[in-house]
């Protein structure tokens, strides 16, 4: 960029001279680009958008030069030393051309080691295992080239049925050997041929299973994919593998769990029938997530297998024939067909006589029909989640023997397609857990449980959640041992529900028990709630008829959080509720439709959390909390948020000595006109964020007793208090506050603010702090310490009554955003920003936009070094006629600086018109020289590439 020298410019109007001062700006360009003094008009300038200079042709530090290896650098194959087979370490991948009749070419390749030159395209490198050898062999290898084995021809499948002796294939002349080694005693090689990545196993015993979650990728790897002997952490190989070839003589390990699991790109297994599985006991997850061609399992010997859990989990392949499976010794079929997405299956040949675990067996499978008439479930103890979220429309379990089942939790949950379920033959005498058993069975029209034996059941949580059918007869239920009934009738929409026979003497948890209940009146006269400790959300969203709680014993209840949240029933009588031990009342009445709340009997001595307790109770017109004991309360966040029906609130008896959070406490309670907080003790409060946000009905707020020494967040504290005409915060201690975003925004009736006591040393955000304080006529910020502030976006936007603002004491060294900082300060005629440090500012869009009364601006300290956007920075500054720019001010767009009015344009506020549309230098270099707008842009614009 050319060196720029100081120059001063003016424009001449009839009877008016405007000054424009540019210091230290491009003297040479000024002399060269000086316009003809006789010109009377100017052409609108072209945009001076800056483009970045082209990058130098330097090597990319992220690119790694790859040295080509000569073809004489041969891979070392597995070496048998005595009876010991040694695995090879991986070496760089080499590309080779292979012919069945010839060895790999030994013609050397030329290496490129020039560090200043971009690397030429290299052949792919492959990893290969290096054999460990004896000291004698090592010495020999040190002096002789290592021989390269001939890459074995890739076997080809002759059909898709995986016949026993079809492990042979036509050899592609272009075969890339990626790696080779030994797993267990089976030698293998991993090759790339055409579009396929092929893993070929030769005769021998496969290695032991190795599988588990990979945290970095968050997916489950199978035995092959996780095996350090094969892929050794190269997870992309696990994703790219398309074929597996199995030679005759390959013997599966006793633990073959997840053997082919999660190889999501695997298209076929050639020679699967060659795999000897006679000794396998564990096949769990063996074909998890398989998506390829049909599997031939006709030769699978499963006679010794005991574990088939998750064997076909998430199976998405072609047809699956299980007719040859011998499952006589299998005990675990948990999740065997979970998430199954294949064709229909025939289970008639499965022997389940010894199975004890069928949990999740068909969970979320896509099967539309299940014929389990052949299932022998005599020994099954766990049927939890067995049919969870299946798309079944019909299910016949009439032959199920459930005599030994202990767990039926979620057994049918989410089976929304079922309309009928006959469980009349179920023996549930030993069942302990029935939680969520029918949860989400929204399609059931009838459910006959008259023969259910629930004597031993302890958990009925969520058992009938979402039930919409006809009357549910639970009169035979023995609930004497039940301890958990939480969410039991969540969103129940069925017919009459008679719970008069329920024995609830041992129940401790009734949380959400009738959440969203839409049925008829409930009779709680026999409910024994003596031992209940949790009633949170018990009647939340209740839409039923009359609710009589007079018989409730709540003496041991500690949690009533959300107990009546979203309540839409009739009025309630709380006079009998014993709340002496309650510690949590958060959200207790949030969004309820009650118009009156008599809580005079409430004992709140032990309550620590009252957050959201009355939030959004917009129907309440009065609230008497004079008897509330809040001595132990820590959290009052949103306690009265959006109580739009309240006009007054007497909190004079509140003890807030232990409260730490008052954020949004009165948020949007827009009709509150009177709020007495004179007794509030705020010594421990750290959060006052949005405390009075949107309290537009308040006209006066006395916070003179507020101790804010520990407050960190005052973001939007008074935002939207548009009715406030007076606000005394002169005693505020803001030493620890770091966020003042929108603190006084939209306080449109305030005419003055005394912030002289404000300590802003730790404040980081002041964006929109005074935005739309349209009645403020003066603002003294001389005590403000802005050294740590990063954001001043819209800080004074629309302070339309301010006429003067002195910010000469502002330290803006760390500010990055000044966009719209003074926009729409329409009466501002005196603005002192001469000491602003804008070195780090990236955003100045419309910074002075529509400051219509500004006539002069000294921006001599402004730097635009890191600026990205200054569009419209002076837009609407129609009276700006004196502008001082510094040596490091550079424009970005042709609209960044004020344009000279066209000839004949009326000068704002006068009867004068423009006669000579030029900027004229009034001081500095070439005083008196004329410049068109384009010349002016050149003086302050960035170099063009």
From TrEMBL:
Keyword entries, A-Z: Plasmid, Signal
Compositional bias of kind Polar residues: 48-126, 145-156
Pfam families: DUF285 (PF03382)
Region (Disordered): 48-170
Amino acid composition bias (Low complexity), ranges on this chain: 127-144, 157-170
Record's protein name: Putative surface protein
Record-level GO BP terms: SCF-dependent proteasomal ubiquitin-dependent protein catabolic process
Signal peptide extent: 1-29
One GO CC annotation: SCF ubiquitin ligase complex
Superkingdom to which the source organism belongs: Bacteria
Organism name: Bombilactobacillus mellifer
């Amino acid at each position: 960029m050319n060196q720029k020298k100081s120059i001063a410019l003016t424009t001449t109007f009839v009877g008016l001279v405007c000054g424009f001062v540019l210091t230290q700006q491009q003297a040479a360009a000024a002399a060269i680009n000086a316009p003809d003094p006789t010109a009377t008009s100017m052409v609108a300038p072209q945009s001076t958008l800056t483009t970045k200079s082209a990058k130098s042709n330097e090597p990319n530090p992220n690119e790694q030069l790859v040295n080509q290896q000569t073809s004489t650098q041969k891979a070392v194959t597995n070496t048998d030393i005595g009876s010991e087979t040694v695995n090879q370490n991986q070496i760089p991948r080499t590309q080779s051309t292979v012919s069945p009749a010839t060895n790999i070419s030994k013609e050397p390749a030329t290496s490129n080691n020039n560090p200043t030159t971009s690397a030429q395209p290299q052949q792919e490198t492959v990893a290969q295992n290096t054999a460990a050898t004896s000291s004698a062999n090592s010495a020999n290898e040190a002096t002789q080239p290592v021989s390269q084995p001939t890459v074995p021809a890739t076997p080809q499948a002759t059909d898709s049925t995986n016949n026993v002796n079809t492990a042979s294939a036509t050899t592609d002349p272009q075969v890339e050997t990626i790696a080779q080694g030994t797993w267990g005693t089976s030698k293998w090689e991993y090759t790339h041929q055409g579009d396929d990545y092929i893993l070929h196993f030769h005769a021998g015993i496969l290695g032991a299973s190795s599988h588990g979650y990979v945290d970095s990728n968050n997916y489950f790897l199978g035995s092959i994919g996780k095996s350090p002997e094969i892929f050794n952490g190269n997870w992309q190989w696990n994703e790219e593998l398309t074929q597996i070839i199995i030679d005759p003589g390959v013997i599966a390990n006793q633990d073959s769990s997840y053997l082919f699991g999660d190889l999501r790109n695997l298209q076929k297994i050639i020679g699967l029938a060659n795999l000897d599985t006679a000794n396998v006991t564990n096949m769990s997850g063996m074909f998890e997530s398989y998506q390829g061609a049909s599997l031939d399992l006709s030769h699978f010997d499963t006679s010794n297998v005991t574990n088939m859990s998750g064997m076909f989990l998430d199976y998405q392949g072609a047809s699956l024939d299980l007719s040859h499976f011998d499952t006589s010794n299998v005990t675990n079929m948990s999740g065997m067909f979970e998430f199954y997405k294949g064709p229909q299956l025939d289970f008639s040949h499965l022997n389940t006589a010894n199975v004890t675990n069928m949990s999740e067996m068909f969970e979320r499978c896509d099967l539309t029909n299940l014929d389990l008439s052949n299932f022998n479930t005599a020994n099954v103890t766990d049927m939890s989640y067995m049919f969870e979220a299946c798309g079944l429309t019909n299910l016949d379990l009439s032959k199920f023997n459930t005599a030994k089942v202990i767990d039926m939790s979620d057994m049918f949950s989410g089976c929304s397609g079922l309309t009928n379920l006959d469980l009349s033959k179920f023996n549930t005498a030993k069942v302990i857990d029935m939680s969520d058993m029918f949860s989400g069975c929204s399609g059931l029209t009838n459910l006959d449980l008259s023969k259910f034996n629930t004597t031993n059941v302890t958990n009925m949580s969520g058992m009938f959640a979402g039930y919409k059918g006809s009357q549910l007869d639970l009169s035979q239920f023995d609930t004497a041992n039940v301890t958990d009934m939480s969410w039991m009738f969540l969103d129940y929409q069925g017919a009459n529900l008679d719970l008069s026979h329920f024995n609830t003497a041992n129940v401790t948890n009734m949380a959400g028990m009738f959440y969203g209940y839409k049925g008829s009146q409930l009779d709680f006269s026999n409910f024994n709630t003596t031992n209940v400790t949790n009633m949170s959300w018990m009647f939340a969203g209740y839409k039923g008829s009359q609710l009589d709680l007079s018989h409730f014993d709540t003496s041991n209840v500690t949690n009533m959080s959300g107990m009546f949240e979203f309540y839409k029933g009739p009025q309630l009588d709380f006079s009998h509720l014993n709340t002496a031990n309650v510690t949590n009342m958060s959200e207790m009445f949030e969004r309820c439709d009650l118009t009156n709340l008599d809580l005079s009997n409430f004992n709140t001595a032990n309550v620590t959390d009252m957050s959201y307790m009355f939030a959004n109770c917009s129907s309440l017109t009065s609230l008497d909390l004079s008897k509330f004991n809040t001595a132990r309360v820590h959290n009052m966040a949103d306690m009265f948020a959006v109580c739009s029906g309240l006009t007054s609130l007497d909190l004079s008896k509140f003890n807030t000595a232990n409260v730490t959070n008052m954020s949004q406490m009165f948020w949007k309670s827009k009709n509150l006109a009177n709020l007495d907080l004179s007794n509030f003790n705020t010594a421990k409060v750290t959060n006052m964020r949005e405390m009075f946000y949107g309290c537009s009905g308040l006209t006066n707020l006395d916070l003179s007793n507020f101790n804010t020494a520990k407050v960190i967040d005052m973001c939007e504290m008074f935002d939207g208090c548009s009715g406030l005409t007076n606000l005394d915060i002169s005693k505020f201690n803001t030493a620890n506050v770091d966020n003042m975003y929108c603190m006084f925004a939209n306080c449109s009736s305030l005419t003055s603010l005394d912030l002289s006591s404000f300590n802003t040393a730790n404040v980081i955000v002041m964006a929109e702090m005074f935005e739309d304080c349209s009645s403020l006529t003066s603002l003294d910020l001389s005590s403000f310490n802005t050294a740590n502030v990063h954001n001043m976006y819209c800080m004074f936007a629309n302070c339309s009554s301010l006429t003067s603002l002195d910010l000469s004491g502002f330290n803006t060294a760390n500010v990055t955003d000044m966009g719209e900082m003074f926009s729409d300060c329409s009466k501002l005629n005196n603005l002192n920003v001469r000491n602003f440090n804008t070195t780090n500012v990236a955003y100045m869009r419309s910074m002075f936009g529509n400051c219509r009364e500004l006539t002069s601006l000294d921006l001599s300290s402004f730097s635009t070094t890191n600026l990205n956007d200054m569009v419209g920075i002076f837009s609407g500054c129609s009276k700006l006629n004196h502008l001082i720019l510094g040596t490091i001010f550079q424009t970005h767009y042709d609209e960044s600086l004020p344009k000279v009015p066209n000839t004949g344009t009326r000068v704002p506020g006068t009867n004068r018109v423009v006669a000579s549309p030029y900027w004229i230098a009034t001081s500095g270099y070439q005083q008196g020289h004329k410049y068109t707008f384009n010349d002016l842009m050149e003086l302050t614009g960035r170099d063009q590439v």
